[in-house]
């Protein structure tokens, strides 16, 4: 049986998904590099992760292969753990420093 392109790609070409994913990733990357608030930086990292998930899902659907969608499932599980641990670290740093500014983190000893 020959792999067929799903019908949704007749309406929306794969290049649109690639372009959207690239734009999301670049917006997240610019946010990580420019912003000073650790919570905003954390959200930009999540935007970058979602851009990669969009690319994996769309490419997987385009080529009719479930491997990318399975990878997205595991990536989302890791992202959930990252959010839980990351927010706990941010809360503890805020308790100690009373700031979420990244420049203040240089005062931490370690």
Protein topology:
Blueprint: H1 8-11, H2 14-34, H3 38-62, H4 67-97
Helix pairs in contact: 2-3, 3-4
Write a structural description:
- The chain is an all-alpha fold and 110 residues long.
- 74% of the residues lie in helices and 0% in strands.
- It has one domain: Helix Hairpins, CATH 1.10.287.3510.
- The termini are far apart.
- The model has no long low-confidence stretch (mean pLDDT 88).
Q: How many domains comprise the coordinates?
A: 1
Q: What does the main sheet amount to? A: none
**CATH topology (fold) name:** Helix Hairpins
Number of strands: 0
Task: State the name of the first-level CATH class.
Answer: Mainly Alpha
The CATH architecture term is Orthogonal Bundle
Shape category = elongated
Q: Mean of the pLDDT scores? A: 88
Class computed from helices, strands and strand pairing: mainly alpha
Radius of gyration: 18 Å
Query: Roughly how much helix do the residues carry, as a percent range?
Result: over 70%
Run of helices and strands = HHHH
Distance between the first and last residues' Cα: 59 Å
Give the amount of beta strand, in percent: under 5%
Which consecutive residue ranges, at least 5 long each, have pLDDT under 50?
A: none
DSSP helix count? Answer: 4
């Amino acid at each position: 049986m020959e792999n067929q392109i799903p019908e949704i790609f007749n309406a929306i070409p794969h290049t649109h998904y690639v372009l959207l994913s690239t734009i999301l990733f670049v917006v997240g990357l610019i946010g990580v590099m420019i912003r000073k608030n650790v919570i905003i930086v954390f959200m930009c990292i999540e935007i970058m992760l979602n851009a990669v998930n969009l690319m994996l899902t769309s490419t997987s659907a385009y080529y009719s292969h479930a491997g990318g969608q399975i990878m997205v499932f595991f990536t989302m599980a890791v992202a959930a753990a990252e959010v839980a641990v990351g927010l706990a670290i941010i809360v503890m740093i805020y308790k100690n420093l009373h700031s979420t500014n990244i420049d203040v983190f240089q005062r931490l000893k370690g």
